[in-house]
């Protein structure tokens, strides 16, 4: 079943993808309190295709941790799982202890397909989970809240620096907050434009951005392209 067939219902099975047994157990309690049936994925496959085959066989929704590779055999992050699950119309929510530390890097890369990010602890309650699934279902149907709607805007690369997950582009989105820089993985830009990182600084680009996001952590970027040139006389 996918979300286009029918909405999630009480008792529906929700796959829990978490590599730590203690967190799988506590996450299962949250899922139960939200009136769903927890389906723990005890062994996380090395291949995403294998993981989705298991999910589609056992569950109709997904609740996933972000850092899944601590055992050494998994090369993908939970943000990728959640984003690709939502693209398949299987509602998925990201629940992680690393929301603040990873939101500008490995989460930002997939944020356009992650309607709601939950922080373990602060958001570890059934009401927040139910809200997250509801928002995710709506987006799977193409219905966006104002804070999540994409707009084609100019993104200026002010600087680049090395971060924990590679080179980060410090970007200014005038249509959002013109005096604030937002970190974006530089590879998200260079892989779209076939441009070396050392040529990014000063470039005016065009991208889809949810400019009504209330915080920088909730911003997403997709479909980068070269923006218009600088007007004469600037």
Describe this structure in words.
The chain has two domains: 13-140, Rossmann fold; 148-226, OB fold (Dihydrolipoamide Acetyltransferase, E2P), CATH 2.40.50. The longest helix has 15 residues, at 126-140. A hairpin with an 8-residue loop joins strand 7 and strand 8. It has a five-stranded parallel β-sheet, with helices on both faces. A five-stranded antiparallel β-sheet has the order 8-7-6-9-10, covered by helices on one side. With 234 residues, the chain is α/β, with parallel strands linked by helices. The chain is globular and about 55 Å long. The chain contains six helices and ten strands.
Low-confidence stretches: none
Mean pLDDT: 91
**C-alpha geometry:** globular
CATH topology of the largest domain: Rossmann fold
Distance between the termini: 55 Å
At the fourth level of CATH, the homologous superfamily of the largest domain is Response regulator
Radius of gyration: 19 Å
Helix content: 25-40%
Task: Name the CATH architecture of the largest domain.
Answer: 3-Layer(aba) Sandwich
In order across it, which strands form the biggest sheet?
2-1-3-4-5
Give structural attributes:
single chain, globular, 6 helices, 234 residues, 5-stranded parallel sheet, OB fold (Dihydrolipoamide Acetyltransferase, E2P), alpha/beta, Rossmann fold, 2 domains, 5-stranded antiparallel sheet
């Amino acid at each position: 079943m996918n979300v286009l067939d029918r909405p999630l219902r009480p008792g529906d099975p929700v796959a829990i993808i978490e590599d730590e047994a203690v967190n799988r157990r506590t996450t299962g309690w949250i899922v139960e309190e939200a009136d769903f049936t927890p389906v723990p994925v005890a062994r996380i496959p090395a291949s995403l295709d294998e993981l989705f085959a298991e999910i589609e066989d056992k569950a109709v929704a997904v609740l996933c941790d972000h850092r899944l590779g601590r055992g050494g055999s998994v090369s993908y992050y939970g943000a990728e799982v959640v984003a690709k699950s939502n693209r398949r119309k299987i509602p998925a929510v990201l629940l992680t202890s690393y929301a603040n530390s990873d939101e500008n890097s490995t989460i930002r890369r997939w944020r356009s397909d992650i309607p709601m990010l939950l922080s373990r602890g602060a958001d570890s309650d059934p009401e927040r989970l139910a809200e997250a699934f509801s928002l995710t279902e709506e987006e799977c149907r193409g219905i966006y809240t104002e804070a999540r709607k994409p707009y084609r805007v100019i993104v200026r690369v002010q600087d680049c620096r090395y971060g924990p997950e590679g080179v980060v582009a410090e970007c200014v989105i005038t249509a959002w907050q013109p005096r604030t820089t937002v970190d974006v993985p530089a590879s998200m830009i260079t892989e779209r434009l076939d441009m070396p990182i050392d040529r990014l600084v000063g470039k005016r680009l065009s991208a889809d951005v949810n400019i009504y996001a209330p915080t920088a952590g909730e911003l997403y970027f997709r479909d980068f392209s070269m923006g218009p040139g600088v007007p004469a006389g600037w």
